[in-house]
Amino acid sequence: MKSWTQCIYVTCVFTFLLNIHIMTVQSDSNSKEEDDDWSSWDEDEDITEKPNLKRWNRQGLCDHDAMTSVILRIILDIRDSMKTGDPTLGVPPLDPVGIPKIQIEQTGIKHKFGIKADLTNVVVRELSKFTILDIQSNLIELEANFSLQIDTMTIHGDYNLRGIVRSPMPLPIFGNGKFLLAPKQAKIAVFSKFGYKDGILELLSFDFDIKLLDLFVKFDGIWGAGRNLNAIVNSFGLKAFNKMEPTIHEKVRQRGLHEINKILIDLKYDEEFVMELLNIPLRCYFG
Question: Which domains, ranges and CATH numbers included, belong to the chain?
Answer without folding.
Answer: 2-286 (3.15.10.50)
